[in-house]
Design goal:
heterodimer, A: alpha+beta, five-stranded antiparallel beta sheet, globular, B: alpha+beta, Muramoyl-pentapeptide Carboxypeptidase, domain 2, four-stranded antiparallel beta sheet, 4 strands, 16% strand
Chain lengths: 126, 180
């Protein structure tokens, strides 16, 4: 079981953050195009290769995580990413501007540690 | 530098006197900087707005409240959850307009104004105007354009403090929003 990648979008579709862990193959399109695909109208789905988990707040912040098929419902994980990481480290930091990609290294590293600590994340993909 | 990333739901207790005194120092400084009450009122509203656009995220993260279906639900959440969470008071909701687009928040006491007396030289100062900005900013982030204004103020001799909330319109997502 593993996590492939994670996107964080705001209400205007600006990609605030993107991280990947085990991305088995690139989609073959540029990263910008891929961001556009991701945010257009998906809720939750799975294919034969991966599962996409989606969480949206009333303020339009969207957390999108792609995992392999072995991972069950993870609303609480996505909520934690929003509340304990994004809100605590970005929103509450007046020096972090909103509406653009998060520059905070603390946010990036705390998010990375959190994902790696998840029970369904394994260091080896698959 | 160690920053707690998982304070979760534990509340940070802070002296309310410190909060009241800090707010008072802020208003006093603004009065010195701007010289006339109208400009101070505008600044307080602007600062409140900048607080509100961020505070809403903290509110959603901690309260787990979902999207409100109408303005009545919004009023309930503001008075019973948000005010309680941030100011420790629960204003009452009264005076709904027939169309359901306006209501009043009545506060018996206002923690911002403990120990405060308004001098005659500042009779048009809306001391707690920060609150109106916070409400406006927070609601804008959940797609609601509202107007919030004080219509009664205990600091000016009224029996209670009353904020009138008016729903203007729903905001569509593609409008750029940001800090003022």
């Amino acid at each position: 079981m593993t996590v492939h990648n994670l996107y964080l979008f705001d209400r205007n579709g600006v990609c605030l953050h993107y991280s990947e862990w085990h991305r088995k193959k690139q989609a073959g399109i540029s990263q910008e195009e891929e961001f556009k695909l991701m945010k257009d109208g998906f809720v939750a789905f799975q294919t034969s290769r991966y599962k996409l988990h989606y969480y949206e707040t009333p303020t339009g912040i969207k957390v999108v995580m792609n995992t392999d098929l072995g991972v069950g419902p993870i609303r609480d994980v996505l909520h934690h990413i929003y509340s304990a990481l994004y809100v605590e480290l970005v929103v509450k930091n007046p020096l972090c501007p909103l509406g653009q990609t998060v520059q905070s290294e603390l946010f990036r590293s705390r998010l990375d540690s959190y994902i790696r600590s998840l029970p369904f994340f394994s260091a080896r993909a698959g | 530098m160690s920053r707690q990333a998982n304070r979760g739901t534990e509340s940070k207790k802070m002296s309310s006197e410190l909060f009241t005194l800090t707010y008072g120092a802020l208003v006093t400084q603004l009065c010195k900087d701007y010289e006339n009450d109208e400009d101070v009122n505008k600044q307080l509203d602007k600062m409140g707005y900048n607080i509100g656009v961020r505070l809403i995220e903290d509110f959603l993260a901690r309260s787990n409240v979902g999207k409100c279906h109408d303005f009545r639900e919004t009023a309930d959440v503001i008075a019973k959850v948000a005010f309680k969470m941030y100011l420790g008071i629960t204003p009452s909701i009264t005076n709904w307009s027939p169309a359901g687009d306006e209501f009043s928040l009545i506060m018996e006491n206002n923690p911002l104004v403990d120990f405060v007396e308004l001098p005659d030289s500042h009779s048009s100062l809306i001391y707690s105007n920060l609150l109106c900005g916070v409400l406006r900013g927070a609601l804008e982030m959940v797609q609601m354009a509202v107007e919030a204004k004080f219509v009664q103020d205990a600091l000016k001799g009224d029996g209670v403090t009353e904020i009138r909330m008016r729903f203007i319109r729903r905001i569509e997502d593609n409008l750029p929003v940001g800090e003022e």
